[in-house]
């Protein structure tokens, strides 16, 4: 299937998000669509699939002009969109999510559960995913939920699949499995639009790259004829320099020590420490227990045994309020459901964790609140219309900066970052890395959980590798490399 989009315009109120944007997808190719957060990539694809109506322009499919009224109409034509914001029913099972509206019926019109479970298992096995069709979606990790969404698209027998940040929540092994599926689909003539900020993936997987900037078409490049620096310059209009900014701060005294932390069936006998001004990277495969360990330290998941010591004093953390009072901040991996109130403004989100700083006798000072939030917007370079800008209307990178802002302003001693750059463009990533380095320079002990190995290797003073709920090893920055980390993560020794 060949798709051509010409001169596409789209505005939301007075905000024009697409200006003469264009895109061409050839039959059987994997085509990357790149640009900073807010460049218009997802909006362009939502216009293609009928989520939004264009203001101007033309959409051609195999030479015929089309205007799909909704995603269902686009799917019937063979075009499926896997959204970055997961489109799942959390209270239903994997099987029910996969077959919603597409149930297999047996005799007397009843659902053939056996046939649906069999087909679901086949699709999940195709991706190399060990998930039961009977599992409830809310019990799965974000990465597992993403794999279910990918399975749903594969089962639709699509001619074109649009993937928006498909590997943002996946581990290296799951990403490898997905790439094998993409290659097999390409050989069958399926075309794919691949939206991602992960440069390494783009250059490994795709045939061509189209770049958007500020809603406008900038250009298209064949992968063999370009390089990362050229694409970055097209995306942001300037050179970006080193991807991981250098940090010269030397770690100081120990701030946090975790010893023997155990929760049966989740993690066991976890030992590690973090010093002031240190960035401890945490790596491991999906389901290894990385997030659960951090949730436990923050008081969101009760541990059964072990000790937590802060600045030499053993502490009891029974809930997040205890953790916050002790100077611990926690940026969760899912900013949209756990990190932000999306329907609220930047001001309301940032103020929520900082009420003590902006209120007197339980009364919020409007001037103090506005001053605090305005400074955060300026210092973190949050692109918005002002403190009243609703978070739902911010790009992913700017949403992540709001989450960072609300915790940074609490002046934490310890800051836990779980997937801090998930779904964030390369320009915003570097800004977030610089913020992390600045926090470390100010003596904050930083724990950074990440599924991106280059990020862990580039940003960490030490790397702790978790496998099946256990610490398999802690490697210094000087000794660490991708092979050593993956060896430990998969059960080997170094």
Notes on the structure:
It is globular, with a radius of gyration of 23 Å. The model has no long low-confidence stretch (mean pLDDT 88). Helices cover 34% and strands 25% of the residues. The protein has two domains: 3-236, P-loop containing nucleotide triphosphate hydrolases (Rossmann fold, 3-Layer(aba) Sandwich), CATH 3.40.50.300; 254-489, P-loop containing nucleotide triphosphate hydrolases (Rossmann fold). It has helices spanning 41-48, 71-76, 94-98, 113-126, 142-155, 172-187, 199-205, 228-236, 290-297, 320-325, 335-339, 346-352, 355-358, 366-379, 396-408, 426-441, 453-459, 482-489, and strands at residues 3-12, 15-25, 30-34, 56-61, 64-65, 79-82, 160-164, 191-195, 208-213, 216-222, 254-263, 267-275, 279-283, 305-310, 313-315, 328-331, 359-360, 363-364, 414-418, 445-449, 462-467, 470-476. The protein starts with a strand and ends in a 5-residue tail after the last helix. With 494 residues, it is an alpha/beta fold. Strand 7, helix 6 and strand 8 form a beta-alpha-beta unit. It has a six-stranded mixed sheet with strand order 6-7-8-3-9-10, with helices on both faces. It has a six-stranded mixed sheet with strand order 16-19-20-13-21-22, sandwiched between helices.
